[in-house]
Amino acid sequence: METVLELSGVTRCFGPVEVLHGIDLGLRAGEVHALIGENGAGKSTIMKILGGYLAPTEGQVLLDGSPAAFSSGPEAEARGVVVIHQEFNLAPDLTVADNIFLGREMTRGWRLDHAAMRRAAGDLLEELDTRIDPRARIRDLSVPDRQMVEIAKALSRNARVLIMDEPSAALTHREVDALYAQVDRLRAEGVALMFCSHRLDEVARLADRITVLRDGSVVSRATRGEMTEDQMATAMVGRELTDFFPPKDTLTGNVLLEVQDLSVPGAVDDASLTLHRGEVLGIAGLVGAGRTELAEAIAGLRPGSTGRMTVSGEAVPLADVRAAGRAGIAYLTEDRKEAGLLLTKPLTENLTLAALDRFGFRIDRAAEARAMDDATREFDIRAASPDMPAGALSGGNQQKLLLAKTMLTEPQIVLIDEPTRGIDVGTKRQIYAFIRRLAAEGHGIIVISSELPEVIGLADRVLVMRQGRIAGEVEGDVITEEGIVRLAMGVGADHHDAEHKNREPA
Amino acid sequence: MRRIDFHLLGPLIALIALIIIGALLNPAFLAPANLSNVLARSAFIGLIAVGMTFVITQGGLDLSVGSMAAFIAGITIMAMNALVPITGVNWGTIIIGMMVAMAGGLAAGLFNGALITRARIEPFIVTLGTMGIYRSLVTWLSDGGTLSLDSGLRTLYRPVYFSGIGWITWPIITFAIVAILGEWMMRHTRFGRHVEAIGSNDRVARYSAVDVEGVRLASYVLLGGLVGLATILYVPRLGSASGSTGVLWELEAIAAVIIGGTMLKGGTGRVWGTVVGVLILSMIDNILNLADLVSPYLNGAIQGVIIVLAVVLQREKRATDNR
Amino acid sequence: MRRIDFHLLGPLIALIALIIIGALLNPAFLAPANLSNVLARSAFIGLIAVGMTFVITQGGLDLSVGSMAAFIAGITIMAMNALVPITGVNWGTIIIGMMVAMAGGLAAGLFNGALITRARIEPFIVTLGTMGIYRSLVTWLSDGGTLSLDSGLRTLYRPVYFSGIGWITWPIITFAIVAILGEWMMRHTRFGRHVEAIGSNDRVARYSAVDVEGVRLASYVLLGGLVGLATILYVPRLGSASGSTGVLWELEAIAAVIIGGTMLKGGTGRVWGTVVGVLILSMIDNILNLADLVSPYLNGAIQGVIIVLAVVLQREKRATDNR
Amino acid sequence: QTEGEAKTIGVAIPSATHGFMGGLNWHAQNTIDRLGETYPNLSFVLATAGDSAKMVSDIEDMMATRNIDALVVLPFESEPLTAPVKSVKDAGKFVVVVDRGLSEEGIEDLYVAGDNAAFGRVAGQYFADNLESGQKIVVLRGIPTTLDNERVEAFQAAIEGSGIEVLDMQHGNWNRDDAFNVMQDYLAKYPEIDAVWAADDDMATGVLEAIAQAGREDEMWVIGGAGMKEIVQRIMDGDPQLPVNVTYPPAQISAAIEMAALNFVSSAPMAGRYIIGSQLITPENAEQYYFPDSPF
Lengths: 506, 323, 323, 296
Ligand SMILES: Nc1ncnc2c1ncn2[C@@H]1O[C@H](COP(=O)(O)OP(=O)(O)OP(=O)(O)O)[C@@H](O)[C@H]1O
Ligand SMILES: Nc1ncnc2c1ncn2[C@@H]1O[C@H](COP(=O)(O)OP(=O)(O)OP(=O)(O)O)[C@@H](O)[C@H]1O
Ligand SMILES: [Mg+2]
Ligand SMILES: [Mg+2]
Fold this sequence. Notes:
Main location (chains B, C): membrane
Keywords (chains B, C): Cell membrane, Membrane, Transmembrane, Transmembrane helix
Oligomer: heterotetramer
CATH class of chain B: Mainly Alpha
Membrane topology (chains B, C): Multi-pass membrane protein
Organism (chains B, C): Paracoccus albicereus
CATH superfamily of the largest domain in chain A: P-loop containing nucleotide triphosphate hydrolases
Helix content of chain A: 25-40%
Number of domains of chain B: 1
Number of strands of chain B: 4
Number of helices of chain B: 14
Helix content of chain B: over 70%
Bound molecules: adenosine-5'-triphosphate, magnesium ion
Number of domains of chain A: 3
Pfam families (chains B, C): BPD_transp_2
Distance between the termini of chain B: 20 Å
CATH architecture of chain B: Orthogonal Bundle
Largest sheet of chain B: 2 strands, antiparallel
Shape of chain A: globular
Number of strands of chain A: 22
């Protein structure tokens, strides 16, 4: 098979720091190429260079064997090289259809052909098996829905080369399946695909060719079937990984958080739950089940929420972030770009933003720097300097910074929405261990995750949400994929909804 | 659609309320003659505000429009006066004058736009600078006084402001056409779509192969052209231009745009909201003149209160917007 | 640090260039008497611009400051005049007047802030409204004329503007202290951090349990307080207030903030850049008076050109910013 | 002409924001150019200000950096300019105040002014003489200022007892466009108007246009003020819509600057008050008030 797009001897520097060292890499038609590596290894940087969004400092990008002089992403796109970025690239004020066709609008004469674009967008989304309304505004969509729009946008480009930067990180298994189907289809059509992912099962399932990156250099290459998931992890991290999930040796204490009949208009109906000290409570469900809304309501971030909530027996007013904060509740958002980090501000300012009152009336810069050092060490944040803007961190390192920021408030109750989105296997382990350690110290943890193995491996108890309600609870040894999926899809329930008709439990 | 309607209702309700108040205060308010006056007066600011909607929607701002209008009116009058001895008092001369106005507007818009997009200076500063420049130039050209159009030409040119189809005069017709075209451009053309995309997130637009600088530049040129058009309608009204022509038009135009529901930070443009905003502003003035109030000194205060109230009606929506 | 310095150099270089030009045009420019005049004059806009820096940095805007200053000067003068028969001509009366000014400023800021944060109306509209309201009120209070301070009080009060430590008069001292405090607040306090965080992404700030509405409100109150303080220094200078007091101060204050390197869309505040911006603006006026230029009609044009040039120097940075 | 030592005269006037001030600016500049040529030992500094504070700053600058020997000032407002002008006087400079008096008597060496009260009174007198009791007029006022108040009060005093009904008074801000709008609204509001006092020829221009549009030219006449050349021309032509005008000469600034110059170049000390009264311009005497070269 011919090599369509190729990097030859590419290095890239940001300021004085060289993040890629002499990368050689080729994408072939009809083949899926997976790029894996730790957070900050340089995966996104490689993809941006391939897509024309960044120029290599040294070396060349070759398209069909001759130097490709892309000076910009759009130029590359015009030549059939399309990138789905790790950060979202959607205009929040425009609708789904507008975004999908932005820059390539369909027109009839001078007039935009709204109907055709809506139809085409609807078809694309249909193929992706989502129910997103093409007329919805991006700002009103949930994070996974936005990711699906991003994928639809890329698919609409009829690419020869499709490069996907962690396309599945923000998706639940339902959309992931749709994505896989598209990948298989495109491969069959002879498109050259590249993706990166921290889900190694996915890599094993999809990739025809694997390139492993460590600290900006290629450390190993393999073709389909040559590497097991464990071997991938070892190659990435450079050492053996054992015991992925730490043991659940929980000693559950007294009730820490009690929520009764919590409702968020349009998203959550009468949710009740209790959380004990030392417990990790998982919340599972499909996209749009209302998990994020529930967590945000508990954290006081949803105006208009009703119900009752107590922390250690003390009533906490709803819809009041600061009261929730004072009661020791902290929420780690799934939307790190829009709600989590100030992308243009230095790492240190981001880290201490939620806990500034602990740094004195005159902010103690030295103490801040110490906190940054500690966080860098504890959460293994790979950054060139604490003064760099958070937006220049690699995706996974942003997530680690967000985690560090949340923990700096020293909460009693931590609600973590998608704790390991975009985090590499090595660090995932550290984070799981960290969560267990927090629980062991007597904190209460709520983990919302779309990765079922994560919920299963981590939680002592799992609540399953479906259409804004808590559909049921699984505990102890019954925490299995099947048990959760059944509840999440409402299998056995009386009414037959879309999901039920469309797919069977995995 | 369902959502948009609701959002637009705010200023529309305010406009309807104003019309009702006006009619109650003085029956003459609804007479065609008065409506014709109010609408024709709105036309200058209206044309400019339609252009301003595009500029604000793409994330820009233009403070220079008022003095730009004065300056263009000045050069148009000077050009026509200079031509009279050569071409005589006829429509040919006036049409050349109109072309000067249009060309002047487009050039001034291009100048603003080029400084903003090519030299990458904040629009606020560029247009604050050109505002001072145009204002000074017109004062200088008129020697601190007034530039007046040749009286023969004036007589010929007057009907462009004062006549039309019945009481629907040319300024009203022009404004209506431009408003409809503007709304259409914003909603149904690639240009409008790109303007919104750039205002919403210019990096995304750039990544989507939108010619960000080009579209930005075009929005300033469009605004400049509309300022030129407004001048073409303004000159026949009083036949003069001076250093005090068009003072504070920029503020009025920007206010109309924002009252109409376009956000100052860009991203969504509502041309027809802008039209409603312009009408609200000129009706307030008209009603204050028609009604007998405590003291004319307080007109400004009443105006201020009404402007705020007109926007309060939009508030509900935004409160829920705020996740 | 290295980045910040470079960015700030732009306006600083412009300021230094202006000083050199001034000194070349007229050696008297660098005389203490002239510097004292220029700096003291800058103090009003300067104090207001420091407050405006906070408001703009958090993503807001305040168009009402000029008329707010006029209104507060008006009520301060009226209050002091009313008190003279009771308390007599002494410092007690003046101090009460100062307290009225401060209270008025804080209340006016609170009013703006409350409408913006509680009623959730766009700052542009709220402050455009209150701008009209305050301007009208002062015109109405003065019956279209001028409100003048009792002449005995004036004599007593004058030194507050005109005296000080040598040629460093009280307005200069106050401005310096406020500027240093402001810079310190922006850089080194929680409030400043929160202001920047809200301006760069208010949703992130809210998710970080920052009291977004509270901080926003506080920034308007701070600005109001500084307007009150500016008024305290303004009243002894002219001893009067009228409908034309403080006209266009808002534009000048906003321009100073932006020339100083703070972005109109918020997120990063540079108080000391603002100070440089204020100085640039008042030096331009001063320099135009130093030499005989073509025509005073063209002063505005020269001013415009210099403002744009002062900002061109910042451009480089932004161009590279834009990957 | 004496071969005198070099002297500098500072001139501080409001900027040209409306027709009258435009004329005044023009005359000031013209006079300066002319005197500068005639008397090479005199130099002039001209500064225009948009508000009182700027004018005070200009005067400070003239003192600190231009070392002026005389100041000719048309105070933007009386009260705020009083103390600064007084300190110029106290520094031993020759001070000429134009048009608007300071709030304290006896500061200036020389006072040259139009008479605002007379301006209103002469117009009011004409209305009282030419209208029947019960006839209706509307008034357009200027920018809210003390001098506008003086004019309007004098006008009202003059028509007092004549039985003329003043239907409305709104601010046209000495601006053509504003006056046009206000007059349109007056015409919509009042079916019967017999005369208009526009108080300024810029406003009169806008008013006439609005009346023409409504086709009510035959119904009412208009009195402006300050003697703008186009208006004077029409009075000369006997336009029934513009029977008369009231002078308020922008050229008073020329007189003031000239006198300041003479103070240095002639031996005669200049002092006193020169009040240039407001005259009624009628078709008979209009020719002597017609200056075709002035921009006003
Ligand atoms: N604009 C930038 N300025 C400075 N450094 C940058 C910039 N962009 C990326 N980097 C650095 O380059 C390195 C590689 O980042 P990259 O985003 O390619 O990592 P990644 O492999 O995609 O990681 P992740 O799995 O976390 O997404 C990181 O150390 C990152 O901090
Ligand atoms: N800001 C918003 N405005 C309007 N609707 C929203 C908003 N955010 C989410 N929704 C809608 O609310 C419902 C619940 O979404 P939510 O994101 O809470 O689901 P979830 O269970 O947390 O799933 P995930 O976290 O995987 O997105 C969905 O229908 C979603 O589209
Ligand atoms: Mg990445
Ligand atoms: Mg969610």
